[in-house]
Structures are given as C-alpha cells and as structure tokens.
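PT: before anyone asks, these are the final sequences, not the draft ones from last week. 645 residues across everything. Please model them as a single complex and drop the result in this thread when it's through.
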Amino acid sequence: MLLDLKNISVSFHLRGSAVHAVRSISLSISQGETVGIVGESGSGKTVLSLSLLRLLPSPPAMIKGNALFDSFDLINCPDRDIRSIRGNRISMIFQDPLSSFNPYLRLSNQLIEPLLCHKNISRKEALEIAISMLSQTGITQPHKKIQCYPHQFSGGMLQRAMIAMALVTKPAILIADEPTTALDVTTQAQILSLMKTLQQQYSMSIIFITHNLGIVAGFCDRVHVMYAGIILESAETISLFKNTAHPYTKALIRSVPSLHSTVDKLYVIGGPPYDPSRPVKGCPFAPRCEFGIAECFEEKMELTEVAPNHFTCCSRIKKGEISL
Amino acid sequence: MNNGNLLEVKDLSVVYNDSSRKAKGNKAVNNVSFTLKKGETLGLVGESGCGKTTLGRTIIRLQKECSGHVLLNGIDLCSLSPSRLRPLRRQMQMIFQNPYSSLNPRMTVLEIIAEPFTGRYSRKEKIERVSKLMVQSGLDPEMMSKFPHEFSGGQRQRIAIARSIAADPMLIIADEPVSSLDVSVQAQILNVLKSLRDSLSLTMLFISHDLSVVRYISQRVAVMYRGSIVEIGKTEDLFKNPCHPYTKALLDVVPVIDPERKIYQFNSVQSSDPDLSENSGCPVFNRCSKRKDECRSEVLKLYPCAGEEDHYCACVDSYNK
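LR: through. Structure below.
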C-alpha cells in the first residue's frame, strides 16, 4: 500500500460548537491506482484531502487518525517532514485554476518553485524541466507561454499549467480536487485524457475528488461514496455501478438526468440535507432514505464486505432485507 | 396569427466592441434565427464563450443588438421606445445561474417575490399571491419574512423561480439555472421547473452547458458554437441522430454513468488555440475532424436534415450525404 488512511477524523471547533466534517475514515491507495471520492457539497471530501497534506489551519481544525505514507505518518509527523512531502511526493491540483495561481507572478516563477524547494538544482535547470513538463501537458510554444501571467491563459490552459506545476517533481500521489468542474465538457475530456496519459507515464496514483458520477464511472478504478463525513459505500468502479449496495449511491445515480433516454420525472432524494453541526446517531442518510427504518438510527456504522472487494455501510443490505 | 410562434428571432447579431482592436469588434452572436412556439422549451447548449448567455440577454433586452429582430408575439422589441418596451418587460423574465448574487440580500423573500407586481395589489392580496407562488415552487410560505442568506442554494433558486413566474410572464429565459447546484438539488429544481412549465404552459429558453440536463427539460435543442447555431432540432432527433460533427463530438465527451465507457479515450474535439479572427465559413473549422477545404469558404447556413422534420444542421457535409 502506498498510502494507508486509518480512522481519519476532522472536526472544527467554533464558538463552543463542534462540526464534524470527517468521521473516522479508513481507506488505502496502491501504486498506479485511481481512487475516486464522490459526494455532494458538504460531505467532507475536500476537507479529507486538505487534511492529508495538513493544509487545514489547526486550530480550528482538529485532525485525528493516521495516514501512513512510506515511513511517515502525514497527520502526526513534524512540520519539517510534511514540508518535504507536500508538493514533492504528494501534489495537489485545485478546482479553480484562476484563483490557484498568484496573479502577480509569471508562470515560470510559479512552475519552478516546487523544484527549487525540493530538488537541489539551479534555476536554469528547473526552468528547463518546467518547460518540458508544460509541453507534455499539450501547451504549444512552452518557451514563450511560460513567461505569461495567469490572466493571459484560458481556464483550460491554466488547468494544464497547474497539472504541469503539480507534476514537475514527479510525485507518487496526485490529489485532484474537482479539477474539471470549472471547465467545459470538451476541455474536461482533454484534461482527463492528459491526466491518464501522465499517470501511466509516471505510474502515479491519483485521488480524484468529484461530485460528478459520470467522471467517476469513466475515470476511476475504485470509488468511495461519501456522505456526512462517512464512507457509505466503497467498491471497484464496475461493481459499484452494476451491483450498487447502498441506497444513497443508488439515489445519486437515479437523480442524474440521462443522456440516452428521456424520463418524465427525475428521482429526488427527499428530506432535509445533512446538517453537520448535529450529532449523528446511526446511519446519517437514514432520515432521507426510502428504505430507512427505526433500526437504521441505532445501527453502528461499519463498512462490511458484501461482495468481493465491495463494502457497504447499509445494515439492511448486509442483512439482505432489501435489494436495489 | 404569426403561426403560433411566441418568440421569433431573426438574423440577430451582437458585437462587443473591443477597445484594443478598434477595427473589428468581437461577434458574440452571429446571424442567429430561431422561433419558439407557445408552451415550448428550447434548450440552448454550447461551451463557455459561445454566445448563449449574450443571446438570452439580447432577447430580453438587457443587451443591445447590432442587427436583426426579436419578435415577441409579433411585436418587434428592437424598434420599440423604452417607454413602449416597459410594459412588455413584465412578459419576459429571467432566472440566473447564481442564486447567491441574483437575490437582493437586503430584501425579504416576500419583497423579492412580490417585486414584479409591486403596486398592483393590496398587502393582503400580495401575501396571498406570494404564498401561492412559494407553494408552487416548493417553498414553505411561513418563511416569507426571512432573508436570502437564511436559505440554501437550492432554496434560493426556488425563490428566483417563484419571482420569475410572479408576473405571469409569457417567456422565461433560464440561464444555467442548475449548474451551481449539487446533483440531488439539481434534480429537485429541474422537477419544479418542468412541473411549473407544464401546469402554467410556460414558454422557456433554457440555456445550459449540460447536455443531459437539456435533454431532460427541452422539447427542442439548439447547439451553438462561436456565436452561430450549428444544429437545431427536436430533442429526440438531435440526440438520437446528431448531424453536425460538433454536436457528435459534444455528445461523445459528456461523462455518462457507464463504468465500461472510459471517458479519457474520447477526445474527438481537436483542441486549438482560440482563434477569434473574423472568418467566413464554418465556425467549427479549426476543431472539426471532418473538415474539407470547401468548409472554409462556405457561407454558414442551416440545411434541413434528411428525413426529419424541423431538424436543421449547418454542416455542408451532412447535407451532401
């Protein structure tokens, strides 16, 4: 296992009240694997990824658990160690490329920064590596373009530049937090194919965070479905969509309009959305679940294997009381 | 009277003047024509920058056209004086993309929804009407004295929808109304829009970049690229039998929930550095996989597609077949 997360919990303590954004999540990633984390906004997927790189200010964030990467524990290691990993062995790309770059600096300065920090090389060598990386991401005339400022690039080009910046140090893991949400579908397809090519080239692992089930289906090897800071279902992609084993996953799939058929009415998940400040007893999805019964509110949340490599939290599925 | 068309757009062009390039402006909308029947929903899809929002804003007179006509119920909106246009504005309402910036934070929900019919009713009638509108849009009328910040994104979009139907408009222009929402909330809002459209027989221009959403809500679909409509037809025809290479490419790259279809293998739209220079001929030329030399000189025109009524496509190639 390249990265092994054990019981990660993140909570925010604000004015006496606590918000539990991530509750005891365990998952692991092996080399070259693409792992998808899907969930709606507020499900804790971004907080989870930020906490791995210790990008959350603490306080107010309280991070507990272990994230084992090589001989390091990303959550508990000293600051010096995490600084040597962040942006070097584990890189991250963000949703909005325009706000992720410094508008005052030329791209050249920003693209060589990871190299100057982590590798013992000169500015000139770093610039050469950055230029070749930029050309690998499909930007024409990288020698000229690297001297541009961020505002001179379009959204798609800037996202390519951000990928180039994340990959200049040849990281083992790339965390991609909604990298294509701000882009057009055509650009999205280009960026995804670019990420796949570079992943194969560097045998890199990708943690892909998204709310788009379509991208997960076509891009990831393994998927974790998050709701209220908990993983409700975890499976290999094909198994997740063919033998869905959690009512929430099923509900999400059903509420997406189809491209290939017309339906009269879209399926709607009823009930109030999850409120993170309230304590959760039992299954957090139970109040909105069409199969929810009294016992669901008492049940202990535990991922159990229901099929080979397919885990679910739903107690009724585990007992075989319902099928989806 | 006027063939049952509520809205008729004829050869509409909009040019934004760019101060740095004085000679030629940037043509955001280029000779667009289409019609919209009463009770019909037309979906307008395209990538960002293709002019779909500008087209919507021009129809509703938030943006001045350069040439062409917009006819609402046979009245040419482009030639009306501001005072003559004013009463007609009530007939055209808009729903915006971002419900966080389209609602005035200092107004209560009651004031927001009642604004389109201000001055026409007594306070009691106003409250009655607003509560009816709130129920129709799936909101609890007891919340009418609250302010927008007390609502979630989905609820705010419902407030915007309630406001848009408050004055019994003839035409609604929905500009990406669901693209800032989560999938589960998106489904709720789409269902509200669809049921309102059916119960009030609203005519709607639904602008979106999401083809699956457009497929769900529209009866007809127009695909735009660089200011021009490149294909227009009934939803079923266009999705089952897309004629234009650009439409086909767009349909290819939409992520669908099918784990066996690897999205990163579909890359049929060629990338190109945006070329904003004025050119005649096909707007998709630089990115088309099936381009020929004749495409460069061809004047853009919509050809009827063989065998299908009301299905038009701007590609010469598909017409010749």
